[in-house]
Prior knowledge:
Largest sheet: 12 strands, mixed
Number of strands: 39
Structural class: alpha/beta
Oligomer: single chain
Low-confidence stretches: none
Helix content: 10-25%
CATH topology of the largest domain: UDP N-Acetylglucosamine Acyltransferase, domain 1
Amino acid sequence: MKFTAEQIAGVLEGEVVGNPLAEVSTLSKIEEGVYGSLTFLSNPKYAHFIYSTQASVTIVNKNFIPEAAILTTLIKVEDAYGAFAKVLTFYAEAKNNSKKGIEQPVFMGDNVTYGEDFYLGSFTYIGKNVTMGKNVKIYPNCYIGDNVTIGDNMLMHAGVRIYSETIIGDNCCFHSGVIIGADGFGFAPNAENSYDKIPQIGNVIIENDVEIGAGTTIDRATMGSTIIRNGVKLDNQIQIAHNVEIGENTVIAAQTGVAGSTKIGKHCIIGGQVGISGHIVIGNNVRIQAQSGVTKNMKDDEMIQGTPAFSYNDFSKSYVHFKNLPKLVIELNKLRKINIKE
């Protein structure tokens, strides 16, 4: 697809400086710009690249004034970074929305329904009594179990597995390797010193506007539901255990694990490789630094770090002493020797 600078400026409500008919068909970084590409400049430390970039069109902030000759056509907007993000979204949607129809071979069970603009990739299995909304895009090699409900505008990349009874809202995106609804980790010790499996008969509910990264797993509840609320964003390779609830617009970075029955509030930011114990409650607007271990309840607006995690400010102060421990031990031993001599 090709677009002119004038067309892009119209979408972004920007002003063209240069050739309004300059065409682009791809996107690029400013330092890697080539003829026919669209790029952007928002960070001043990259400003020197605008004088050498070969990109045909560059989005810049409204207050940008070139200090030397440039080859690229400019589109001036209030916020270049935000405008380029808008272009990326438009490009991704245009690319994905071009997919329509049902490829072969696929399997679809009885009583499957779907809305307009449906796309189903080859080698996909859909069980019985599955309901899907409008503009659902399911790429090849996916599995959708019985009695699953999927809302409008779903984008499911290749190799996703959705177990039975799962409920998914509108405007969700699951990346490759996501597994939703596998059994929770429930086992009970028995008299033979081994473990009996506890049946996991609940489901997973994922609300609207949720994005889940590649390789992330969300377990079904033992009873009731594991719930991912509106606007949650999960990175790659995250484990969410049975009966967990994650509040609206919380974001979690890669390789974090959340144990069973924990409740996480709204608008939390959780760093990578965080471990969160089961059966605890984390409040709203909590910030958890990377590689922390959370073992107790957290109140609203706390910022924590460490294992076991405690106040971020206290951790930062303590870390100064952690680093100085070898030196402090040497000083302590010197004082001991002086005391012994005396």
